Amino acid sequence: MRRIKGTRFFARLMAFLLCGSMAVTSVLPAAAKKKKDDKDKVETVYVNADAEGRPEKVTVSEQLKSHADGVLED
Q1: What is the pLDDT of residue 22?
Q2: Taking the mean position of all CA atoms in its chain, how far away is CA 34?
Q3: Which of 51, 72, 71, 52 is nearest to 62 (CA)?
Q4: In this predicted model, what pLDDT tens digit does every residue of 5-53 receive, in sequence order?
Q5: SS3 at position 12
Q6: Distance CA 52, CA 1 (A)
Q7: How many whole angstroms separate alpha carbon 54 and alpha carbon 25?
Q8: 3-state secondary structure of 69
Q9: Which terminal Cβ of the chain has fewer Cβ within 10 Å, N or C?
Q10: Cα separation of 15 and 27, whole Å?
Q11: Residue 15: which residues within 8 A CB-CB, separation 6 or more?
């Protein structure tokens, strides 16, 4: 079977570009700037399941944070 000239070079170039883009996006932080009065809400859901994968118990954990003084409402 005959190979097209430059196919190997193209494959290596694409692999290099893919690896480079993955490295850059994993290192750079998100560019989201928070205001002083922003509020954070973190919600975590834990599920205890049986061997078949059916849920037996669901626990929801919420954590509210405020970076400003005053009342915090959910």
Answers
A1: 85
A2: 18
A3: 72
A4: 678 888 889 999 999 888 877 766 655 555 555 567 788 999 999 999 8
A5: helix
A6: 49
A7: 36
A8: coil
A9: N
A10: 19
A11: none
Residues 6+ apart with CB under 8 A from 6: none
Length of the chain (residues): 74
Instruction: Convert 29-74 into a string of H (helix), E (strand) and C (coil).
Output: CCCCCCCCCCEEEEEEEEEEECCCCCEEEEEEEEEEEECCCCCCCC
**Distance between CA atoms of 6 and 12, rounded to whole angstroms?**
10
The one-letter amino acid at 13? L
- The pair of three-digit structure tokens given for residue 30, joined into one six-digit string: 């998100």
Q: Which two tokens stand for residue 44?
A: 């975590």
Give me 64's structure tokens: 């509210």
